[in-house]
Structure formats: C-alpha cells, structure tokens
Specification:
nine-stranded antiparallel beta sheet; globular
Length: about 325
C-alpha cells in the first residue's frame, strides 16, 4: 500500500474477527476505525464525516484514499467518500423554488455551485456499537447560524451511519428538517474506488443525460456508452464525468460491480432506485488510479430543468419530516472462468 490512511496504527490482532470500534489519531486528526473479520473502515468525523479508507484483510485498499489529513482538507471531494448534500452542479448556483430565489456559492470555478454544503463540515460522533457489527453514527446539526445552514438557506440535521461486517459495509444518511419551512431535498455520495489496469466496472446505465459544459440540459438517450457500461468495461480506458439514469433490477435495486482480477476480488455497490434514481460516473483522465460511482437522488441542475419532478428527482422535505437514504458495498472472491 502506498497511501497509508493512518500514519501510526495501533496494534492489530489479526486473529480477532470480532467487531471493534477504535478511536485513533491520524497525523493529529481524530479518526474512527471500524474493524470486523479482518476488514477495516476509517472515518474522519471532523473532516466532512469522510469514510476515507476501506481495507479488505487489512492489506487491500478498496477506496482511493488521501495520503494525509491535509490532502483531505485541500481536496475534500476528490478522494475517499464525500457526502453530498445536495449533489452535483446547479447552473450559476441560482434557481427559484417554492416562490423563493436561492443563490448558492459558486464554488465550481466561480461559475456554478457544486456538491452542496457538508463535504468539508465537522461532524460529531453520537454513537458507536459492536454488538453484531462495527458501527458508528455521526451527526451534523446545522442550526440556523451554522455556516452550512446559512449557505443552504435552511437549518437541517444529518445523521450518518456506517456499519461494517466482514465482507460488507452499509451506509445510511438520514435528513431531518427542524425548521419552519420546507426545503429542496437531494442527497448523494461520491466514493472513489481504486482502479488498476485490469479493473472492470459494470454499471446498469439506462440513459445518458445530455450535458452542456457538464450541466444537464434535460435531454437524455440510450447511448452506446450505456450499453458498454452494462456489459462491463476496463475502468482505466474511460475518461468520464457523465450523468446517467439508473436501470434497476426487478427488485428495485441498482447494482454496480467492480472486478479486480489482479487481486481476485469483486465489489458490488447497491442501492434502492427509490433512493437514488441517478448516478454520475467520474474517472478524470484515462489511466486514472480511481473510478467514482456516485448515486444521486436528483439529476444535477434539477431545480433549473423544465421537467416534472418525477423525471428529475426534485423533492421537498416538509418541516418536522425525515428522509433516509442508503447504499451498501459487498466484496467477495472473484469467480474465475
């Protein structure tokens, strides 16, 4: 491993497969380490609540991780697993919703708003548990005077729950509206998976959204790229920053697969299409050491599209209401043919 997520890890008992939650430090930054069956998940609560590293058998990196806390501070949505509330771009950072004009920070080159308000926020650890899994719950209580609430335009409360078992990780995000007005609701995640020369990704892409300088225009079609992704393609041959509508299985679940023949491991990332009907695939340039599969509850720029909410994912959260989103990862030995 060339990018160790903890500079001086505490003593590890490889033989002990019982779930454990450990409070540790990473170059002075407080972190939480979940351990179960030899697998490990690393979280930095005060740096965006980031799940910044995930390891199988304590040696195989599944996520593309920052080399230091400083990298996580400088590039908060370019490594690890940023929490996006809301996700994606909003053209010009402006839109009208509910009779109100929203003006969000133009943090995307000074032109558009990108990825919401919590990817670099400080979260608090509210709960840990090891009864049947290694679990941690983080809370971000954005009261009216909180910087994120001011930027968003409403107070909100987020609860982020990670649960690690041997061979699997589950994530749940609960969004609560403690205010007196409804607010536009959207959430997403931006996990960066490691990619090597032999890594193959399979993604159930139903339709690709047309973009104008990375902003969806409202048009979409079943492109050859969609068929390619459904059949499986080598990750490092792709140069993507594209938006897709997901194609769920008959049970309503969206399932993506990442195969690593070099280490004999395959990952399945899944979520309910009712939670995340859309996904963004990002790989940067060809040959990148990462590949990101981003589940979104709305299509980027949804507030500015002249389409019904059923097609864009545009939603509202009323005062006192709560909405939960979830996704899972499973990793197993790769079946060889």
């Amino acid at each position: 491993m060339s990018r160790d997520p903890v500079a001086s890890p505490s003593e590890r008992n490889v033989a002990d497969s019982r779930p454990r939650v450990q409070h540790d430090a990473w170059d002075g930054e407080a972190v939480i380490i979940l351990r179960a069956g030899g697998d490990e998940a690393y979280l930095a609560p005060r740096l965006g609540g980031q799940l910044y590293a995930l390891r199988h058998a304590q040696t195989v990196d599944l996520l593309y991780s920052p080399a230091s806390p400083q990298e996580l501070r400088i590039r908060p949505f370019h490594v690890g697993t940023p929490v996006l509330f809301p996700p994606g771009r909003v053209a010009g950072g402006e839109f009208v919703w509910g009779g109100r004009t929203y003006r969000w920070p133009r943090n995307d080159g000074g032109t558009h708003h990108l990825h919401g308000f919590v990817y670099d926020a400080a979260w608090d650890v509210s709960y840990t548990d090891t009864e049947d899994a290694a679990r941690v719950e983080l809370v971000l209580d954005a009261a009216p005077e909180h910087p994120a609430a001011k930027a968003f335009g409403h107070p909100f409360r987020l609860t982020l729950d990670y649960e690690l078992r041997a061979g699997s990780l589950r994530c749940r995000l609960m969004v609560h509206n403690p205010g007196q007005d409804p607010f536009p609701l959207a959430a997403g995640f931006h996990p960066y998976f490691c990619a090597g020369p032999d890594t193959v990704v399979t993604v159930p892409a139903a339709a690709q959204w047309q973009l104008d300088q990375l902003i969806p225009t409202g048009g979409r079609e079943a492109t050859p790229r969609c068929a390619q992704l459904r059949s499986g393609v080598q990750a490092q041959t792709l140069a993507l920053d594209d938006v897709f509508s997901a194609l769920p299985d008959e049970d309503g679940m969206v399932r993506c697969h990442i195969a690593h023949p070099d280490i004999g491991l395959t990952l399945e990332m899944s979520w309910a299409a009712a939670d995340f009907p859309f996904l963004v695939l990002f790989s940067g340039e060809t040959g990148s050491p990462f590949f990101s599969i981003e589940p979104y509850s709305w299509v980027p720029n949804a507030p500015n599209l002249s389409l019904p909410p059923t097609e864009t994912g545009m939603a509202a959260l009323a005062p006192g209401e709560q909405r939960t989103y979830a996704w899972q990862l499973h990793w197993t030995a790769l079946e060889r043919t």
